[in-house]
Specification:
The protein is of the alpha/beta class. The chain is about 30% helix and about 15% strand. Strands 1, 2, 3, 4, 5 and 6 form a six-stranded antiparallel β-sheet that branches. The chain starts with 14 loop residues before the first strand and ends with a helix.
């Protein structure tokens, strides 16, 4: 899951200290959590990137605010010495919000009532550089470009969806967008590389459009390092019990009263941008394909997923022969949906798009193949264990359960949970809700369960609907723990083996 900032910690006053490393320079200065790093050498800090550049000197002046008092610390150190400060948020000034209205935007496919940060429509190139969040590059000023080039913020992560400018405009919900190919070339001239993703929609930007996008992006190697193709995700709130909504209707959702709030940049309504009185020359590139806006959206079928895999693998084979790397990769979801065998690990070239769901399942399977050797032969006393997951990954985890059942005294079962909250079209474990997991555990009378780590936030403490591990265990009347990596499963089983 992409990094999600918390707006209440981005005050524009500086970087709030979250922690201080022991025996560090910051510890010697007695800096404490809650202190605010306002500036270094008189330069106000916009984010942790500015901070890192500013401390790369032998002599620095650190302006710190504690409550109403400000203190300047003069520090002498080696240029590459860190100060030992951890910040609450990486951004200090403001978050760059998204000015697009993508018809498949997941934010507009969630009901109201969840925590506010989940509705944050961010599109900040700094989060791309720091965490690999994908951004669109449609909201950059010339000052932003200069900063990217001067500070050499490489690599960048760009959501492409289509290299055809007209089709990309529709997929971003705008009458026109910048030429992304020229943007990548500009980054390349500054020595900055790019990782790209294409969210594929059946019948819209796959087929010939996907062929074109892959060819044009691949031609920019090594400026473009990777291309990930991932399937669109649609929840029941997109369909709302009716026929699938068209792209046009989905774009318009962004400007309905229930979705406008202070975190969303107001953009012209679709009808305002392409009204009947608008001259054709003012419609921009979107005018050529405006008919595409009335195409209904839907999820991929298994046979269509296999077709995307065939296309991607054919390009990867050609590119590997030409460049030595496959460069373009279909996400794990395509393989799991189609039932196709996942490629071997070396086909992912080091898995540079791992966090985007590309190679993650292969990595798990290979990790499990090694880790399972450390399983105990038997338990000290009989125990039952249920592994919980989303429906998509169930066939993979069934292999794990089958192996666990070879441990004497252990009775393992798999519990794939249908996502009632977001709808059956949402099949990944990362979007499981506590309110779906608890009834399933109770219905199946589960007494001990391992939950997928990905259904919890970065700290591993709460689900999307604010359930903690403790709350799930209490309401389900079960002993629950979380696990993500194969080693975590092994450690849990080994602990069971010695329980008296």
């Amino acid at each position: 899951m992409e990094y999600q900032p918390n707006l209440k910690h981005i005050t524009g006053e500086g970087g709030v200290v979250a922690g201080v490393t022991r025996r560090s320079i910051a510890a010697e200065l007695d800096l404490q959590p809650g202190d605010v790093i306002v500036s270094i050498g008189g330069q106000r800090l916009r984010d942790v990137i500015d901070y890192r550049f500013a401390i790369a000197d032998e002599r620095i002046e650190l302006l710190v605010r504690r409550g109403d008092e400000e203190t300047i610390y003069e520090i002498e150190k080696d240029a590459d010495d860190d100060l030992g400060i951890e910040f609450v948020e990486p951004l200090f000034d403001r978050l760059r919000t998204c000015n697009n209205k993508c018809p498949f935007c997941f934010l507009t496919q969630m009901p109201k009532g969840l925590r506010k940060s989940l509705y944050l429509k961010d599109d900040d190139f700094r989060l791309g550089f720091l965490y690999g969040n994908f951004v669109t590059f449609t909201n950059l000023s010339e000052a932003d470009w200069q900063r990217i080039e001067e500070q050499h913020l490489s690599p960048q992560y760009i959501s492409i969806h289509a290299t055809d400018r007209a089709l990309r405009a529709i997929l971003l919900g705008k009458p026109d967008v910048p030429d992304v190919i020229e943007q990548i070339r500009r980054l390349g001239r500054a020595g900055i590389t790019t990782h790209t993703q294409i969210v594929a929609l059946p019948g819209i930007n796959d087929g010939a459009a996907l062929q074109q996008s892959i060819r044009e992006l691949a031609a920019l190697y090594p400026m473009v390092q990777t291309i990930a193709v991932v399937p669109v995700g649609l929840t029941k709130y997109r369909f709302d019990g009716k026929r699938p909504q068209s792209i046009r209707a989905a774009i318009q959702i962004h400007e309905t009263p229930e979705w406008i709030n202070e975190n969303w940049e107001r953009q012209p309504l679709w009808e305002e941008a392409i009204g009947s009185n608008t001259p054709p020359e003012a419609l921009g590139h979107c005018a050529r394909q405006i008919v595409a806006a009335d195409i209904p959206m839907r999820c991929y079928r298994a046979d269509e997923a296999a077709g995307v895999i065939d296309m991607v693998e054919a390009h990867a084979e050609r590119l590997r022969a030409e460049y030595g790397v496959g460069m373009v990769y279909a996400s794990d979801e395509f393989y799991l949906l189609s039932g196709r065998e996942l490629p071997p690990a070396d086909a992912y070239d080091g898995m540079p798009q791992y966090s985007n769901g590309v190679g993650m399942t292969r990595d798990f399977l290979d990790g499990w193949a090694k880790a399972q050797r450390r399983l105990p032969a038997r338990l000290a006393r009989p125990a039952e264990l249920t592994l919980v997951c989303g429906t998509l990954i169930a066939p993979v985890l069934q292999r794990v359960v089958d192996r666990l059942n070879r441990v004497a005294g252990l009775e393992a079962t798999l519990l794939p949970i249908v996502n009632q909250y977001f709808g059956e079209t949402v099949t990944v474990s990362g979007l499981l809700m506590g309110q779906d997991v608890v009834p399933a555990l109770r219905e199946h009378q589960v007494r001990r369960a391992l939950l997928p780590r990905v259904m919890f936030d970065h700290s591993g403490t709460r689900t999307i609907d604010e359930y903690t591990i403790e709350r799930i265990g209490s309401e389900a009347e079960a002993t629950v723990a979380i696990a993500g990596e194969p080693e975590e499963i092994i450690r849990y089983i080994r602990a069971l083996a010695v329980e008296e």
